[in-house]
Amino acid sequence: MTVPTQLPSNGSFSFSGRTALVTGGGRGVGEAVAREIHAGGGRVAVSDFDLDAAEAVARSLDPSGETAMAIALDVRSKDDFLSARDRIANAWARVDIVVNNAGLARRTPTQDISPEEFDEIVAINMRSVFLSCQIFSEHMKANGYGRIVNVTSLAGQNGGTVASPHYAASKAGAIMLSKYFARYLAGTGVTVNAIAPGPIDTAKGRLSEEQIARVEAEVPVGRFMEVGEIAAAVALVASDRGGFFVGATLDMNGGLYLR
Ligand SMILES: NC(=O)c1ccc[n+]([C@@H]2O[C@H](COP(=O)([O-])OP(=O)(O)OC[C@H]3O[C@@H](n4cnc5c(N)ncnc54)[C@H](O)[C@@H]3O)[C@@H](O)[C@H]2O)c1
């Protein structure tokens, strides 16, 4: 089987004149999405609760800071979302695109998951999507334009391959929030959609050789998704041309789940 090489951020979609906020942009999928939007001519606020990582990505995109900035944003905090919105609006007039990408998986055995850990995962993966959509729907509605893309998971559709219950449930909630806000905003120029990825190559560092081989054997296409592939899908939905995606869940799972 041919294994494609890492796809570069090639800016296939134009983001000229657009501004974007990406959460969890310090590495992995969020970093790839930030690079894709920037390569398409957009201005990008790279946010993460790891500010050093966000700064490194933003600096590599544009050391002058004119078209890329770093923002400390913990997606558990409504105040952080509000101040990110204000900072971007002050610098670049408005926020056109929000990619809610930050997420966390814990593989704690089911019987050992504490109520606190359950709440933490829900706050990071699901409540964050609610807070972000709540805040940016008002801002975007007032501008008559917006694109919100929520990075969810195959785990939120069918339980996934190795997902824990709090992770799967929180991602299912994020998919439903995408549908809710899509309807809530339909006709305002603002769209909301979800991407539901299966295994992505960013997860390889967290898995043993044996687990990697097991996942590859399980995925019909025989490999993990590359970050460039999910970045391209986010770009499509987040672009001006993505306006007819409304409340969609884009399946990107290499054939693991067909519906
Ligand atoms: N990797 C996979 O196989 C896979 C599969 C399906 C879905 N996803 C989802 O895709 C998204 C990105 O995954 P990834 O593999 O790039 O993850 P990653 O762990 O490599 O990167 C996540 C980023 O989010 C940041 N982050 C974590 N908690 C945060 C918080 N509370 N506030 C702000 N930032 C925070 C981290 O600092 C990190 O930079 C996540 O939502 C994840 O659940 C991943």
Structure notes:
This protein is an alpha/beta fold. It has one domain: NAD(P)-binding Rossmann-like Domain (Rossmann fold), CATH 3.40.50.720. The protein has a 7-stranded parallel sheet with strand order 3-2-1-4-5-6-7, sandwiched between helices. It has helices at about 30-40, 50-60, 80-90, 115-145, 155-160, 165-185, 210-220, 225-240; strands at about 20, 45-50, 70, 95-100, 145-150, 190-195, 250. Helix 4 links the parallel strand 4 (about 95-100) and strand 5 (about 145-150). The chain contains 8 helices and 7 strands; from the N terminus they run E-H-E-H-E-H-E-H-E-H-H-E-H-H-E. The protein is globular. Mean pLDDT is about 95; it is low at about 1-5. Helix 3 (about 80-90) packs parallel to helix 4. The longest helix is centred in the middle third of the chain and has 29 residues, at about 115-145. The protein binds nicotinamide-adenine-dinucleotide (NAD). Nicotinamide-adenine-dinucleotide binds next to helix 1.
| SS class | alpha/beta
Q: In CATH's first tier, which class applies? A: Alpha Beta
Q: What does the average pLDDT come to?
A: 95
Small-molecule binders here are: nicotinamide-adenine-dinucleotide
In short:
The protein contains eight helices and seven strands, in the order βαβαβαβαβααβααβ. With 259 residues, the chain is α/β, with parallel strands linked by helices.
